[in-house]
Amino acid sequence: MAENENKLIYTFGALAELGQEITNRKSFQEMIRTSLHLLLGSLAIMRGGVARYSRFRHELNFIAVKGLGEDFPPSFSLSQQDEHRFLSAGLAAADVSQASGDPVVSEFVAAGRNKPLEMFVPLVIQDELVGLITLGEKANGEPYSSYDREVICAMARHIGVGIAQRNMMVEIERRATENRRLYDDLRFTYTNTVKAFAAAIDYKDKYTEGHSVRVGKYTEIIAKQLGWGNEEIEGAAVAGYLHDIGKLTVERNIINSPMRINAKESVHLNKHPVVGYEILLPIHHPYADVPLAAKYHHERLDGRGYPDGLADREIPYIAKIVNLADSVDAMTTDRPYKRRRPAHEMIEDLQRNSGNQFAPELVTSFCGALLSELTGKKKRLGFTRMLGKEYLLKQDLIPQLQNVLNGLNGTSSMTLVSLD
User: Fold this and answer.
1) Which pick of 184, 298, 327, 381 has the fewest CB atoms within 10 Å?
2) Rounded CA gap, 348 and 401, in Å?
3) pLDDT band at 274 (very low <50, low <70, confident <90, very high)
4) Residues in contact with 114: Cβ distance below 8 Å, sequence separation at least 6, in sequence order
């Protein structure tokens, strides 16, 4: 009786260790190897192996073996009939001698002819074959008892669950990778569609070709300089690309007028922010504030903008960024009724209107980004490509930008505001 009690205590201890091993976050192969040693050690079994079943290749791949010899094959092919036989047997310990007619078992016997195998256990978890355990003889030479078989099946179930969990994690990772690829494809398609809309907007206005794309890029640069996250930066760029989408409904002769438009035409043109908002609002955007950027990108901090005369904190933050980006491009590109302004005048205008039209921290961000590119601290921001090297280097802008930053930093801080 004492011997049986000790054996029972030892077995429960081995099962507890095995359960802990299965839930441990170490490498999968190490987990299987340790589990096999626990199984063999609990019943003093001389040799054995644990195989994982691959449903895609239809084969058993041995992950851990002990005492089977170097010539024991690492994998065995399974036919569909073999898989069905193992599934119908379920998780039960079967003697090799009683299944000698089974072709797969015969392969095991042949492979281990110098190292006899006496038992195999299909690992069937929730009606799915996940692997197989093969076992050799016991150290004392005695046959397996019914108690031994119960212990083997209990421990095999733990190992099977461990393999099933691993399979599930691999499948989750595979699906996550696939979903990520699909998500990236959708984002790529969305971005290209946005750029196509931007090109369509600018195509209608022969004088401002590339305007929406440049505003999108300036908006992106400012958002980066503010320290926003990648998705918020992408959302800011989209808002810049689409800010003038309402102009698609404005008559071409007004947009392409070679001279300043009259009051009546100006009223019609000034409706484009609201129209843009109405166009964008029903669309499910990944970034919620894109329609608001279109509606309010002509508002000013001092309340003198349009369409609603909003002031300061009433204006959505993304609209403030697009307003600055839009103004920069308007000042630095040729229009039929005026030439582009020199770079130093553009910077002076930003400084002069800081706090009236533009948020001071946004002017700081824009000037800081431009200074970083001119001094070589940051490359490929896009200023040189959009504005032109000659335009930027015609006058030494670095001292002027430094003065602007010193002056604005004394009166405002770079507030990190979320696009959401």
Assistant:
1) 184
2) 9
3) very high
4) 69
pLDDT-derived band at 356, boundaries 50, 70, 90: very high
Tokens of 312: 């300061």
DSSP assigned state of 130: E
The mean pLDDT of 84-101, rounded to a whole number, is 74
Per the listing, tokens 């009051």 go with 263
Query: What tokens does 372 get?
Result: 């970083």
Q: Is 385 helix (H, G, I), strand (E, B) or coil?
A: helix
Chosen CATH of 2-174 out of 3.40.1110.10, 3.30.450.40, 1.10.3720.10, 3.90.226.10? 3.30.450.40
- Asked if 328 and 350 count as a contact pair (C-beta separation under 8 A), the reply is yes
Show Cβ contacts of residue 83 under 8 Å, excluding neighbours closer than 6 positions.
53, 58, 129
- Confidence label for 414 from pLDDT (cuts 50, 70 and 90): very low
Contact 161, 50 (CB under 8 A): no
Is cis: bond before 307, omega within 30 of 0?
Answer: yes
**Rounded distance between C-alpha atoms, residue 377 and residue 289, angstroms:** 31
In contact, 365 and 222? CB cutoff 8 Å: yes
Predicted confidence (pLDDT) per residue in 32-51, tens digit:
888 888 888 888 899 899 99
Question: What is the tens place of the pLDDT at every residue in 323-354?
Answer: 999 999 999 988 777 789 999 999 999 999 99
CA pair distance 202, 208, nearest whole angstrom: 6
> By the 8 A CB rule, do 357 and 302 touch?
yes
Query: pLDDT category, 301, cuts 50, 70, 90?
Result: very high
Closest CA to 39 of 170, 134, 166, 146: 134
